[in-house]
Amino acid sequence: MNKHRWSALSLATLIVAAAGCGGGGTSATPGKADLAAPKEKSGTLTMVTKFANPEYAPYFEKVVAEYKKANPKVDIKLEQVGDQAYKDKIRVLSASRDLPDIYFSWAGDFANKFVRAGLAADLTSVIGPSTQWGSTFAPAALKAFEYGGKNYGMPLDLDGKYLAYNKAVFDKAGVTVPASFEDLLTACDKLKATGVQPIAFGNQYGWAAIHYITQLNAYDVPAKTLTSDYTPATGAFTDPGYVTALKQFSDLVGRCGTKDANGLSHETAQAQFLSGKAGMHYLESVEFEAVDKAKPPLDWSFFRLPAPSGAAGDPSALTGAPDGFLVNAQSKNAGLAVDFLKFMTSQQNAAALTKDLGWLSPVKGSASTANANKQLTDALADMDKAGNFAIWLDTITHAEVASAYLSGVEGMLSGSKSPEQVMTGVREAAAKAKKEVG
């Protein structure tokens, strides 16, 4: 089950209250909290996650129980809700000035909104790359929750986007792993000639297409330009690479993708791949476990969406990002919250995350052949080679921009918009975002 269900339309309705919000008490300076480990670990922590699914929830319940067992004077009130329920809940908690001590966050502008409002504690002194705790994480994972040169989030997992492929289907069509985007299109033609769907693709909720655009933008737009445009205060989106990326995506869907993808869910497309009716499926590394459990078993592997020849951007970028947790800047138990998060990301608990959930942890040395399948360990090795994470376009950008991209690309898939028209809408949204952030 894919755990990346974020929609920019939800972010557009997120209400981030002014500094001063927080159920854990008040702090003198917004964004500043007392992070020192308490001499006596006691008190109550509140924590909200979006991992209520029965395959995920027990892991977090176990970590909480083990911490409480080791620290009997600490009570942790853990609340776990689903994706959509979390978006609704965090909006309400923000508006009512009652954020928990620890709360889940996606990387990108979702987290940055809390930072800008002074609601996320500055964790640089405890988790910055030069600290003991920070040095235990993969640098790219820490950077995903960096804002203004400071660290505000604790990365929980590592998640990269890959094209999984069925080896038997490839062999039958005489297809090898493509080295370039152009080779991928040619491979799709060969697969289609054998009567199989080249790439199973469902875009019912919009984000599936946006993941492709995230990667193609990283390939087609210079990195500095991309960073500037994804920052609400400076976004312009005038580089021609954005239109190029959309045109490449249109070619990909036309030659490789599923017809009427806007009416098909990601899960339905995945089932098509798992049943051997499609050669490839673009999925996250957190979904590898679902492929491993396919009945009958699949002989499969994966590769990155390959870069177009002569692309102007970063060919080493990889779409993906860690999920993570923020600490309420107004919490009177911020130090205790940090201590619990350190416990959650110990070597033991990080290794259990991989073994129990099939997720890669950003904690160095936490994945091995003892707790992960070959595809996961291969993915971890590949992530180590990535120049940087191209964070999901619908979370790294401002809500206005993300919404324009979502609706625009859906319109492009339905034939009602051209790539140029999509970018006109994105530029208009960027101008609104610029005014909003001042």
TrEMBL record:
* Name of this protein: Extracellular solute-binding protein
Signal sequence span is 1-18
Protein transport as a keyword of this entry, yes or no, is: no
Q: Which family does it belong to?
A: Belongs to the bacterial solute-binding protein 1 family.
Q: Which organism is it from?
A: Nonomuraea montanisoli
Cited Pfam families: SBP_bac_1
Q: Tell me which UniProt keywords the record has, alphabetically.
A: Signal, Transport
> Is Signal a UniProt keyword of this protein?
yes
